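#structure-requests
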Amino acid sequence: MVFLTQRMLMANVIISKMQGSREGKVRLSTHTFAGMANALTRKEPPHEDQPELMTRAERRRAARKARAVKTWKKVAAGTVAVATLFGGMGVASTALAADRDSYQDTVGNSSFESARNQYGLTKHMKNGAILHAWMWSFKTITQHMPEIAAAGYTSVQTEPMSKIKEVAANGKKFAENWYYVYQPANTSIGNFVVGTEADLKEMTATAHKYGVRVIVDVVANHFTSDWSAIDSDWQNTDYFHKRTGCDGPNGEIKDYSNRYKVTQCHLLGLWDLNTQNQAVADRMQKFLKTAVADGVDGFRYDAAKHVELPTEVFDNKQSNYWNTILKNGSQFQYGEVLQGDSGLDYKAYANMFRDNSSDGGGNTASNYGKTIRAAVGSNNLDVKMVKNIDTGGASEDQLVTWVESHDNYANGDKESTGLTDYQIMMGWAVVGSRRPALRCTSTVRRALAAPTRSSPSSPSWVTPVTTCGRTSPSRQSTTSVTPWMARARTCRTAATSPA
């Protein structure tokens, strides 16, 4: 009987957890179980099995106990049923919310593998080509998934998915709005650029039907600079670094050779997340795990070098941020770690992203992008100039290379804006022929405009050309598309990536 009572108490705990504080603390009273325990375990009165020997008082007590035992047995049976129901619901809920393993759900899935092989897409994301669908909505990407797969992209990368600051007066003017996608207001999924969480789920499901994987850009270093635009449940000063001890105005970063200031001060005045606060790390991890559960396969972390490494200690505090948020079930993760800072441990970041992903990870190869742009800009594709890549101590398969990105095209310096389409295409030819670095192409030259199909087999943003005996897409007009030679196993004379 004591064992049964203990089980009832355990059931009460289960129900309390299932219906916890957020559900209004709806639970069965522990007093109910205390009464049950008392009725079922109380010492029996003497002569209970011999009524004729019992006094009048003992008979009354025995009758009360019999009624109580009958009542409590009914309660116990009902409670077991309820506990079983809630326990079953708990198991079902846990199964539904179980951490998704992106690698096993794609490469380990026969349906996905069949589609991937049908389109000849690279098995490992680190060896393939990414289409950076810049300023495209989830619905636009979904609509053009057949062309994306046919063009040979292993992955498609989206804009940041979190809620962002909106400036209604700007509408969707490209030149005035694009940087707002890098100013989160909370950690919920969906904004006016990419669409809703339901749109994200539809896109990832469609991508997987075509053997394509999805990478989402994530802003995990900061929120918007406008405190009033941040959601109320994030308006806690403990969630952000102080604006003191920095050398720039309003706590901004000025000295990029000082790792304390690079990681603890505020990039361009944006509210810098207190990445030593475990509550912040836990909330960010939940955000990422939700995205993976929605079908996302990888993440690109914006401004990654502005979040301290786990080995760096500032103000006597060690950060567990990366160790927490990178454990999210995705298969490929990389950081925007722009090279050039004297105190930057570039290799450590690359290794961290690789070691916390199930199938590869690393950093952006910003220096190589500069080299390529300089080469094509001067019409000098001398082998000596473009052969060597600055790996920063990391291995080449940990690098994500590109010729043109949104930063190069749309930032104030407009580093790549003046390059012609032909020069950009030649740059991609060089990048695409390398082995085994990952290539990331961008749609920046189309801004907010969505591609339109000119025929069922050929999107308008791709011009078919013949390369190595195959009809292949090449860059046309204002769209940056990786030449077919970037795909694995295309030309025997070109360096190729393993499947």
